[in-house]
C-alpha cells in the first residue's frame, strides 16, 4: 500500500507508536488521518500538531458502538477508510494471580477491539474490493512477554485473529498486517521500568529499544510490501525460528535470563 491520497484511522493515536504512525502517514501523503484515543485532549494535541490533514476523535476501543460510530463518521466525512490501524493496547504485568478484571481488560483492549474494528470496516472494504487492516500485536504475540501472562496470552490471540483475517479476506482485496515490535520507547515501557516489572526489565536488558518513529519506518516499508508480519526488530524472526525448532531450549534460555535479572 502506498499512503498517497489514502484515508487512515489510528486507534491509540495520542502517543507512542500510534502518534508516530499518524504523523508518518500524513508525511507520506495521506489525505486524512483520524487520530482516535480514549484521551481526547491528547489525541487533539497530536492532530493539531500534524495539521489540517489530521482529525482527532475520542474513542473507547472496548465499546463496539463507539467503534462503529467512528467508522461511520469517518466514512461520511471522507468517503471511505483505506487503512484501519487497530493500535491501542494495554499491558498488565503479572501472572495467574492477576484478577479477572485485569484479564478481562487485556482481552477487551488487545483482542476484542480488533474484532470490533474488523466488523465495522470490512463491509465497505469488501464492497469496494480493497482495504487494509494493520493490527499492533507485539513481539509477545509470536514469542513470550516474560512476567505478563495476560499480555502474552492476548497478544498471541491478536496475531491469530490477524492471520485468520488475512487468510479469509486477502483474495477479496483486503490486506492484513500484524505489527510485532519488541522494545519501543513508549510510556508503557517507561511505566513498566519505573514499577520494576520483570517484562520491562527483560526488554531493557536486550539493548534493542527502538523509537516510535523507527517503528513507523518499518510500518511504511511493511505496508509497501504488504507483508503479514511487520517486525521492526529483525531479531524477532530469528527468535521465533529458534523457538519453533527447539522449544525446550528456547524456554531454558528465557528461564536463565529471568534468574539473572532476579538476582
Automatic annotation (TrEMBL):
GO terms for molecular function: oxidoreductase activity. Keywords: Oxidoreductase. CDD domains: SDR_c. Gene3D superfamilies: NAD(P)-binding Rossmann-like Domain. It comes from the Bacteria. The keyword Lyase does not apply. Residues 6-184 form the Ketoreductase domain. Belongs to the short-chain dehydrogenases/reductases (SDR) family. This is NADP-dependent 3-hydroxy acid dehydrogenase YdfG. It comes from Micromonospora citrea. The lineage of its organism: Bacteria, Bacillati, Actinomycetota, Actinomycetes, Micromonosporales.
